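Researcher: Next sequence.
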Amino acid sequence: MKILILNAGSSSLKFGIFDMDRDDRRVFKGEFERFGPSGCTLHVRAGGEQAEDQQRPDGAANVSDAIARMPAVLSEFGFTDFQAVGHRVAHGGDRFEEAALIDDAVLEHIRACTPLAPLHNPANLEAITMARTLWPALPQVAVFDTAFHHTIPVRAHTYAVPREWRERGLRRYGFHGTSHKYVALKAAQALRSSVTDLQIISCHLGNGASVCAINRGFSVDTTMGMTALEGLVMGTRSGDVDPGIFAFLHRELGMTAEEVEHSLYTDSGLKALAGSADMRDIEMAAAGGDRTAQQAIGIYAYRVRKYIGAYMAAMGGVDAIVFTGGIGENSASMRRRICDKFEYVGLHLDDDRNEAINLSHGAAPQIQSFESRVKVIVTGANEQLMIAQEVRHLLQERAVAPAPGAWHIPVSVSARHVHLSEPALTALFGPGYDLTKMRDLSQPEAWAANETVDVVGPKGSIGNVRVLGPLRDRTQIEVSMTDTFTLGVEAPVRPSGKLDKTPVIKLRGPAGNLDTDGLIVAARHIHMSPVDAEHMGLKDGQYVNMRLDEGRGETIFANTLVRVKEGFVTEMHIDTNEANAAGISLKTDGELIQGETTKKFGFVGRRNLELAE
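Model: Next structure:
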């Protein structure tokens, strides 16, 4: 499958052809750069990532002109046949959690999000409109910068502003999602690990810049907010400022809100601090003794470093910090400045490796020293490849006819409980003690014991928590989110068995007490037999949406983990908080959501998103 990818901005149009059946997938790369009344510069590279760049003047003065010229440019290099068009779209609001096939309704929603991305969505819309005119028979797919960040929890995406404002859409959305997703997958590949086992901080540092906390495959916080203005210092954007400046500048300088906003987008950032939006120029000036350039570099590095530290705290640790984007990839000195203050968490750069990185052939070199506990990785940004893979995934999903009829899955409410290891059993109940079975549970070999323990936290305790058998290698305590407030401990939402870096809690038994880690809020999941998984077209590790229509009406449980194992009885488990929210007491049935636009395979479950370059 060949896919044309368009990334339209206000001053440039980037495009590429990806052949998804090849190892070196980008077979053509182009950019109309720096539109102006007299035209622009066209850059092209045909024949794969390692082909030679060519450039020449071109008469295109804007995005529409450039797209109108694209068929001739592509034909010149022999690319006249492709099967789909993918568009990068900056803002999808709160509606789009994944890529969407573009129709009039999708186009209208993108248009409605323009106030949230005034510099980006208009150019995206222009490109989509022109492309639909030029290639009306081809499927056109929108891939949203904001989609990856839909997993950010409420505590991280909510602004403390009046409810009426929040109801109008005021919240953190985040951007650069396609880049951060690619970085997470690339880092996992480089570390030969599953992305679900890693805590990653992705630093996309370019003219636009953002940092993202990626906890086991999911975005949990990012520096950009409702718009692409918040967060880091950028080329011409301010990043974080006190919102009070709007009233101050209106009183002192008579500026309107629109004038202040325009200046924060176009006249601020590095441009305001050092007179240039290009870090290369600023670093050269700083090396020559320019004090304002030196100060700008210090401010830029400080802001990145501050957010990395914040995200380490938010996730409770970090396994890898990854740099990408023009500055992240090319400025060894900036990487050094950012990383220098983190020796206290065991991060140590290797200066030689940092200075001599090679990103050819899609490499993702590690630049930490041998003794560093935290890995530091540099990788080239490849948003277009990620967009192409999203487009292919969506079209392949649509091409697979859903199984006849709706798939209904039993749903059970899982109350708080404890799984004990043998040493924990001894500590709590005494040497030589054996659990006694009270009753079997729905899953084979699982049973509820007669024994209970108390779970004790710094704020309060929960008594008579049921122990489940058989014994496990590690102790695991599963509670609801409400229980964590009773205990006074913040527990992560995790799949069963993912216990690294979980909080320590006290268990109290008849023979003694035990301080142990392993406290989690269990991620909602579906136990599934291999036969049922095959019938439903699902695989172990995928994430799906489930619809429950009982209780308080329709409730959608998104990002539900599918766990396939021989011997499992197919059944969905939710905790008591989720059941209460849906108005469910003990058991019900849920429907697996299927169809062209609703069947969801979450980020971690997209096994077909390989990173072959």
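Model: The domain at 173-381 is CATH 3.30.420.40 (Nucleotidyltransferase; domain 5). Residues 415 and 576 are 6 Å apart (CA to CA).
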